[in-house]
Design brief:
single chain; 291 residues; alpha+beta; 8 helices; disordered N terminus
Length: 291
């Protein structure tokens, strides 16, 4: 974790104190515990000098964060880690590979381009101050009895199959619940109208005082369901006493981005999506996806 905070803080933001980057948010321990078989390291004389984490969401997979210790920059260690990481995703049945990187980093664009990734539309992280939403109607995965949870996962898979065939968030939903990182918010409907995997507060990927949607979706074209989902997530954050809600959205998802803007969200970080093969996946105008 210290390696990642130091290298990412130095490389991407030039922070004088990289270990202060993102405060007590945890993007490493959470992913290790969720899928230790998807964590990779490069070593020199038993010293960890680079790491990478991959995630297989059914037919869609991605990797982040990829880091190299500053003492070993520009020596090809990232290129050595990537083939192993991508092979892990391939053996998991992943058909579409994605990543998020900084928009103004030609070095990273070239690196990932060597492995078949193509630059696509920008992805914007958007933020708003949390407000109470007493009118929001929803239920959560944590509120379900053990006997009801498998059925909820089936309903979530049915929804994501409409977003992208084979997309499956089951492992992520279960990991958030088991690690008490937050909750999965579900919007009732027949079938399920929408859901979001949400990290909440310190020790999660959100950090103190913040909520973060790791993945959220309504059915393609259903802006009303996405609006209800946003209200439900904001209500959940308010109930936990959190002050900030962070959400990522690819700008090719025009209607989803418009919902965020109309809901009071403002851009805070702009990056860019890269995918392999070079096709939209679920980055298109009809997709009501937040990630």
């Amino acid at each position: 974790k210290l390696l990642w905070f130091r290298t990412f803080g130095m490389a991407q933001f030039g922070l004088p104190d990289p270990l202060a980057f993102m405060g007590d948010a945890d993007l490493v321990g959470t992913r290790w515990r969720a899928a230790p078989d998807c964590a990779f390291g490069a070593y020199v004389c038993d010293r960890l000098i680079a790491s990478n984490f991959v995630a297989a969401w059914g037919a869609f997979g991605f990797f982040v964060p990829l880091t190299v210790h500053p003492d070993f920059w520009n020596r090809g260690f990232a290129q050595r880690l990537l083939p192993t990481s991508l092979a892990r995703l391939e053996t998991s049945g992943v058909e579409q590979f994605g990543l998020f990187t900084m928009a103004d980093s030609p070095k990273h664009h070239a690196l990932y381009g060597r492995f078949g990734f193509s630059l696509q539309a920008p992805t914007v992280v958007m933020t708003k101050t949390v407000e109470p939403r007493p009118d929001a109607a929803f239920f959560t995965y944590s509120s379900l009895a053990a006997t009801e949870r498998p059925g909820a996962l089936v309903r979530c898979r049915a929804l994501t199959a409409e977003v992208f065939p084979g997309l499956d968030l089951s492992r992520e939903i279960v990991a958030v619940d088991r690690q008490a990182l937050g909750d999965t918010v579900l919007i009732e409907g027949d079938p399920l109208a929408a859901f979001a995997v949400v990290h909440l507060g310190a020790g999660s990927e959100a950090g103190s005082g913040a909520a973060f949607i790791k993945f959220g979706a309504a059915r393609p074209g259903d802006a009303k369901a996405l609006r209800r989902l946003l209200a439900a997530v904001e209500a959940t954050a308010a109930q936990r006493g959190l002050s900030v809600l962070n959400i990522g959205v690819n700008t090719a998802r025009h209607a989803a981005r418009q919902e965020l803007l109309e809901g009071g969200f403002a851009p805070s970080i702009t990056g860019v999506a890269m995918q392999r093969p070079d096709r939209p996946g679920f980055n298109d105008a009809a997709s009501m996806v937040l990630d």
